[in-house]
Specification:
mainly alpha, about 425 residues
């Protein structure tokens, strides 16, 4: 059997070049490991890592106490790969733990107007908003909270399973980091969804929420560095550099998109001698226009899931040292297409619904009988929604640019056939 060290696939001896990537094939060799530290050896008599003396071809008649039979299986050890998997498990645990810690607060003019809340508030007390006169669809918030909680539990269990498997094989470390990253994006999706639904710019992360984000970012960076160090020989640097640039840019675009949209989808400001009013949350649209409001609340969960699904795919590129499988690319293409479709649809709905709300408020002011002549200044803008749409378009552009670059960087099968002929 021959093996391609570029795409890690095995082929029969009749092939000289890899049919997939065109790289020359080499004879498959059994990898032996140091019995002391588990380092892969290439025939050395002294381990380059732990410096123990080894005898890879022991003489059976020799009774020396230093003669060691080297197994073709890696012994149990705490390696860099295992540490990387442990960091992933810690991230998943923090995501599940911090969702119950009060990480969400609502402030007005710098003063906190409600206690910081965790997911328990959105599972129980969210229905009390109706008793306070806010007739908003609390069941949507409740349903999204249930989905978030189940997703965090599932990701933690899967991360734990693959962490245990990582002791037997380093290849499971990647799965551990993938599910750990998914748990972080589940947490962020929950935060931005609740913020956008009801409070807009009034809502923000509490101190506990900020600590969680900082911890997870640091742990994830450390885990990726350790994982890359372990697999440094497998890295195709030209491809991986492209993955780093596209992955970081794509994730940054998505994060900025949700930051802008959750802050202020639209803004209606009315200034008069009596009082000034500002309307900038989706819940106001729902109160005045049930049709547009219901559609917006129905689209928002899918839009949020698709957005952070794209973010997950971009961050996955940081774990891909070579070109990913074709199925991964196809699923990413589908998600990117649906995401931009929802982004444009949501933008159009925001414009239409905010214009209807603006007209309704102006007519209401004109029809109100005041004791004195009242003049007012009104304005409507949706600059943050425009910025959000622009970044969403950049997200899809980044994804499809990466797909084009993948085709140019990867060597087609025709090249392998030509090499065979030569």
């Amino acid at each position: 059997m021959k093996i391609c060290h570029h795409c890690q696939k095995k082929f029969s001896d009749e092939f000289s070049f890899c049919p997939t990537c065109g790289k020359p094939l080499e004879e498959e060799q059994k990898v032996i490991f140091c019995p002391y530290c588990g380092e892969a050896l290439a025939g050395e008599k002294i381990c380059p890592k732990c410096h123990h003396s080894l005898d890879l071809n022991p003489n059976p008649s020799t009774n020396s106490s230093q003669t060691k039979v080297v197994s073709d299986k890696q012994p149990f050890q705490i390696s860099y790969s295992t540490i990387s998997a442990a960091l992933g498990l810690l991230i998943a645990f923090l995501s599940l733990a911090f969702i119950f810690i009060p990480f969400f607060k609502v402030s007005l003019l710098g003063d906190t107007i409600s206690d910081s809340e965790g997911i328990i508030y959105f599972l129980t007390d969210i229905f009390e908003l109706k008793d306070l006169g806010l007739k908003i669809p609390s069941y949507i918030s409740f349903g999204f909270s249930i989905i978030t909680l189940l997703a965090l539990i599932a990701t933690f269990i899967l991360t734990l399973i693959y962490f245990i498997k990582s002791f037997s094989s380093p290849r499971y470390t990647r799965h551990t980091l993938s599910f750990a990253t998914l748990s972080v994006f589940t947490f962020l999706a929950f935060y931005f969804f609740q913020k956008t639904c009801f409070w807009g710019s009034l809502a923000s992360l509490s101190t506990a929420g900020i600590i969680y984000i900082v911890l997870c970012v640091l742990l994830l960076i450390m885990a990726i560095i350790l994982y890359a160090y372990v697999n440094v020989q497998k890295i195709h640097w030209k491809t991986y550099t492209t993955h780093l640039i596209i992955g970081c840019c794509g994730f940054l675009f998505i994060l900025l998109s949700f930051v802008f949209f959750s802050k202020e989808p639209y803004k209606i400001s009315i200034e008069s001698e009596i009082h000034d009013r500002v309307y900038n949350v989706i819940s106001t649209i729902y109160l005045e226009d049930k049709t547009f409001g219901t559609i917006l609340y129905s689209i928002l969960p899918l839009y949020t899931i698709l957005g952070f699904g794209m973010a997950f795919y971009f961050i996955q590129l940081l774990f891909e040292f070579q070109s990913p499988a074709k199925s991964v690319k196809n699923v990413g293409n589908i998600i990117a297409g649906i995401f931009i479709f929802f982004s444009i649809g949501q933008f159009v709905l925001i414009i239409l619904s905010s214009n209807n709300l603006y007209k309704f408020l102006i007519e209401d002011l004109n029809q109100t009988d005041y004791s004195m002549e009242l003049t007012f200044i009104s304005s409507l803008n949706y600059i943050y929604s425009i910025l959000s749409l622009v970044f969403n378009i950049l997200v899809c552009c980044a994804w499809y640019v990466w797909m084009i670059l993948e085709k140019k960087l990867g060597k087609p099968k025709q090249q392998a056939i030509q090499n065979q002929i030569v």
